[in-house]
Amino acid sequence: MNTRPYVFPGATAAASLRQLRASAPLVHCLTNDVVQSFTANVLLALGASPAMVTDPAEAAQFSAVADALLVNVGTLTRPHAEAIHAAIHAANQAGKPWVLDPVAVGGLSWRTEFCLGLIKLKPAAIRGNASEIRALSGLSASGRGVDSGDDSLSALPAAQQLALGTGAVVAVTGETDYVTDGERSWSVPGGHLMMTRIVGTGCSLSAVVAAFAALPGKRLDNVTAACRVMSCAGERACAVVKGPGSFTPEFLDNLYLMREEWLNGENIG
Ligand SMILES: Nc1ncnc2c1ncn2[C@@H]1O[C@H](COP(=O)(O)OP(=O)(O)OP(=O)(O)O)[C@@H](O)[C@H]1O
Ligand SMILES: Cc1ncsc1CCO
Ligand SMILES: [Mg+2]
What we know:
The protein is an alpha/beta fold. The protein is globular and about 40 Å long. Helix 2 (36-46) packs parallel to helix 10 (247-257). Strands 1-9-8-7-6-5-4-2-3 form a nine-stranded mixed beta sheet, sandwiched between helices. The protein is built from ten helices and nine strands. Strand 7 (169-173) and strand 8 (177-180) form a beta hairpin. The structure holds adenosine-5'-triphosphate, 2-(4-methyl-thiazol-5-yl)-ethanol (TZE) and magnesium ion (MG). Residues 103, 129, 146, 202-203 line the site of magnesium ion. This is Hydroxyethylthiazole kinase. It is an enzyme of class 2 (transferase). Belongs to the Thz kinase family.
């Protein structure tokens, strides 16, 4: 296994973004109650189509026709768990990719058991913060509620192990994001500490990962492109806003206006 991460090229991110804008994937979002509207706006700004179809009676029907499914356990309830199982089953039957965001796994027993069951159901990708990825792969973790207490590099071996064990591309986010299929790993620069002070930057990133997972081509590169697009928009937004209150409009504008050359290392320009 080649464990050393290489910096993800901006041109590869740009190629995936071009494909995303051309194909406008329909993303079925089973996400938490805190971030519904923000998540939908992030997908729309990028050119994807979100739909939150959440009742167990409809979830399976919709995930079979959507291009990708997002499963986020942030505000997991029993009806939600039922909808998640139905949707994953239908997505798998229809050959559609699904993505897991294991919010607060490690800190809470029921959702941890639940997600340990989900990762046996062939997710295309898993995106979490360092504490969540460490916990999901069975390592000790120091998460605090939905926030990470661990450094993303410390979770890279866990991410690689999780990728090999599940077949998923695993993205672990933080100051630097790392994305791996267990054999090869990319590092993703950019972002800003202020992004941890606005709710839903990680959750909406997972929805964007689902959108990019629907694209043809290398899944590892497409998922990494999702991380790069979000870190780029976040860094650019944070460079011009005073604080979290004005982040959202600036972030959405940067996603909407994203130019391919912004995705190269030199971010602000
Ligand atoms: N210290 C940091 N410096 C730069 N960017 C960061 C930092 N921490 C997080 N980010 C960026 O913020 C985004 C969300 O990542 P994070 O790891 O905070 O997810 P999360 O904990 O799941 O978030 P949430 O649960 O609030 O949705 C990613 O794009 C990541 O690159
Ligand atoms: C704050 C919060 N609580 C449950 S889910 C969520 C959104 C961030 O993950
Ligand atoms: Mg999260």
